Amino acid sequence: MDLNKVMLIGNVVRDPEIRTTPGGQTVASFSIATNRVWKDKDGQQQKKTEFHNIVAWRRLAEIVGQYIKKGSKIYLEGRLQTRSWDDQNAIKRYRTEVIADNMIMLDKAGASGGMTYAAPSAPQVDAGPSAEQPAPPAEEEINIEDIPF
Asked: Residue 134 above 70 pLDDT?
């Protein structure tokens, strides 16, 4: 059995970049920062920030473009994917990204709290203008205190 699952809670560090592929699919690219805080052997508090490259596709990308901005706090679920390419000098480059499947906006949205969005679970085939329908919000919202980390 294999598992490739990523769960992150962090702050968006730059406004999402929204593009459309030649095939007509929407894709959003952005980064989030997560912080780790601990005490060193001398009792001094230490802090380390990690930056994560995020890619969202289709309806989730549209939602990201509409609601997410620099500074937004989000919970994100997805999978790791590494791409490689040769740069101008024929040097092999690598980039590891989180391909987003689900997102919960953790910023306060009025009195109701965050909003949940999920990517479609299977790739969609374009069968015409009525084929794509927005993914419904998840039925149950995740409370931040229930996350086991």
From this structure: no
Residues with Cβ within 8 Å of 104's Cβ and at least 6 positions away in sequence, in order, are 74, 75, 76, 114, 115, 116, 117, 141, 142
Residues 6+ apart with CB under 8 A from 63: 56, 103, 117
pLDDT > 80? residue 109: no
State pTM to two decimals: 0.68
123 Cβ partners below 8 Å, 6+ apart? none
Average pLDDT over residues 21-48: 91
Domains of the chain with bracketed CATH: 6-37+47-141 (2.40.50.140)
Rounded to whole angstroms, the Cα distance separating 45 from 38 reads 6
Pairing of strands 115-118, 26-39: unpaired
- Dist. CA 104–CA 138, nearest whole Å: 10
